[in-house]
Predict the 3D structure of the following.
Amino acid sequence: MKENRPPICLIVDDNKVAIVLLRQLLEKIGAITVAGECNDAIEAKEFIENNAIDILFLDVEMPGISGIELLKLIPQEKRPLTILTTAKKGYAVEAFELNVVDYLVKPFTLTRLMASIDRAKELLEAKEIQLNNETPNNILFIRDNKIIRKVDIDDILWLEAKGDYVKIQTDNNSYVIHTSLKILEEKLPAEKFFRVHRSFLIALNKIDYIEDRVLYIHKNPIPVSESNKEALLKNMGVL
């Protein structure tokens, strides 16, 4: 999102009345551009592939392909920040596994929608900072509440998945950010970090010792899955 440009959004919902209501709320909020409206997932996928969309307002239950299935069809790097709008709460867990910004249950209020948009704008700003700055390989920028922080990768001890969030533990601090462990694993250098467990990514040079299926970093125990242990030892060059 370019500086001083309002975010561009797409509304996807098979209910035309729901689209009209959402558009009216967005007009009241202002500072956001509605680029288009789609009534099904196939139409939406084509629109996203051919247009630059910052925020996607997406209904979950639609005929043919659901909103959740649509998100899975869009590559992570091309997926707009997504705010789900649905009449049911039952999809929340699966939705946040796909890293959606928010999950709005219809009918939602103007205040609730504004909070979601503010959150999306914050994430867009953080993304813009990362894209517009030549970031050294040893630096990671994260959003810590309202603050964009610079984290030295060499200070990271481990990362732990906690539901829809990831805890980043450094020598002196810990930060909890809204993302997935998979996304951070892709950002961090593979020669320095290793996934020892579905919930843990560790810095290889911070390991003090390993005992059975537990490794220790600064006296903190971290589980090692049976399937990852052999690969970990090989990666460490254990004699």
Observations:
- The two ends are 50 Å apart (CA to CA).
- The chain has a mean pLDDT of 88.
- DSSP finds seven helices and 15 strands in the chain.
